[in-house]
Amino acid sequence: MNQVRIDKWLWAARLFKTRSAASEAVLGGRGHLNGERVKPSKVVRVGDTIEVTIGSIRRTLAVTGVAERRGSASAAATLYAETPESQAAREQHAQERRLTRPLGADLGARPTKQARRRLDALRRAQRRAR
Length: 130
Known about the structure:
By secondary structure, this protein is of the alpha+beta class. The protein has a domain at 1-90: Structural Genomics Hypothetical 15.5 Kd Protein In mrcA-pckA Intergenic Region, Chain A (Roll). It has five helices and seven strands, in the order βααβββββαβαα. The protein has helices spanning 6-12, 19-27, 73-77, 84-99, 113-129, and strands at residues 3-5, 31-33, 36-37, 43-45, 49-54, 57-63, 80-82. Strand 5 (49-54) and strand 6 form a beta hairpin. Helix 1 (6-12) crosses helix 2 (19-27). The longest helix is centred in the C-terminal third of the chain and has 17 residues, at 113-129. It is elongated and about 80 Å long. The chain starts with a strand and ends with a helix.
């Protein structure tokens, strides 16, 4: 076997959890073969380049092997080699996500019931003082 459908390959390489998810990604334009947008039935051969976007992360992979069936994670890792530029961009994105604080993170922890009652009492006292 020296060629396989791109949706089967993406599933076998464990880039997507299900084959239907891989098909939907390719149909949605998130999977490109050798720089071109393709259909899920397009065949992948050793030496091809696949660009796939999963979430907000874009990965560029060189196909080093083909498999029609899904195997172990270690076997799936032998099916492709990620380009150094893609790896660096993915690591940069991960570092940016770690450093970026989510909205509301600076507010601290959620108040306990006791703290909330104290805040309510303080607010009531301020309203009476006016």
